[in-house]
Write a structure and sequence with these properties.
This protein is mainly α. Helix content is 78%, strand content 0%.
């Protein structure tokens, strides 16, 4: 079981490292969104996807290791958490302390990541609202005033409605 714990520690250590990279990318994404740099946002998103793919592979490895530990200790793998695994280890074992450290660090990073991602989501939503407002403003500028019963069609004699999006009919 000691080798399984060592494997688990290595995978968790790598997960923490990858999540830290993801956190730094999320922070830089905020700056790119604020600067309105679409090309930079695309590059960051591609990099982010690569890291998320790596994290998913690490998660799969972690689950396999936890399943192996569950078999060794004759427990249900679905009920086995990092905390429960740490509790099963003797107090004098270094792995117990290291497991708890990695767990706390990972939880902290994920919490920060969630906050930054929510902020980025709000920034993107505001940017989309601004684009929508701009499109509506431009469209309203293309339309004439409709006061006193007069419309653009009656003033200029147009029979075909104008649209900023033309479609073949």
């Amino acid at each position: 079981m000691a080798s399984l714990i060592e494997d688990l520690l290595n995978v968790l250590d790598e997960e923490v490292s990858q999540h830290k990279r993801l956190l730094e990318i999320a922070k830089s994404k905020t700056e790119v969104i604020i600067r309105d740099d679409i090309t930079g946002l695309h590059a960051i998103t591609d990099n982010e996807q690569d890291i998320v793919g790596g994290i998913m592979r690490l998660e799969k490895s972690r689950e396999e290791i936890v399943n192996d530990i569950a078999i060794v200790i004759n427990k249900d793998a679905n009920e086995l958490t990092i905390s429960k695994i740490a509790e099963l280890l003797p107090d004098n074992q270094d792995g117990k302390h290291r497991l708890r450290e990695l767990q706390l660090e990972l939880v902290s990073i994920i919490t920060q990541l969630q906050k930054i991602n929510n902020m980025n989501k709000d920034l993107l939503s505001e940017a989309a609202q601004m684009v929508d407002y701009t499109i509506n403003y431009i469209q309203s500028c293309n339309q004439g005033p409709e006061t006193a019963g007069y419309t653009k069609q009656t003033i200029y004699g147009e029979t075909k409605p104008r649209s900023s999006f033309d479609a073949k009919q």
